[in-house]
Amino acid sequence: MYNLVLLAARPPEWTHERFIAWWRGDHAELTCRLPGLRAWRHTEIDAALEPRSEGWDGISVLGFDSPEDLKKALASPEWADAVAQVGDMKGRRIAVMGHEAEMFTA
């Protein structure tokens, strides 16, 4: 699996609850349409392990079969729609991509 991982913080004027509801609701409706999307996991962050990790609201992991499939998704009209919906929200994000390796399964 090749993943796009997004760590996001809400816009300053939004509550955490509002941001998670939007991310898992209206924004999810657009994200689910991405071509080539094989898996999507979302974590609502409710606590930070240490002070330097504070200030984030959620993590989204979007899985694709290959880097090429992710590139196609990022060039798609569906991605453009999702980006347009975010607009100028003024939240923060970190976006990184890479190959997944399963390290442990119970």
UniProtKB/TrEMBL annotation:
Identification of the protein by name: EthD family reductase
UniProt xrefs under NCBIfam families: EthD family reductase
Occurrences of domain EthD (ranges): 12-83
Gene3D superfamilies reported for this sequence: 3.30.70.100
Signal peptide limits: none
Lineage of source species: Bacteria, Bacillati, Actinomycetota, Actinomycetes, Kitasatosporales
InterPro entries named among the record's database cross-references: Dimeric_a/b-barrel, EthD_dom
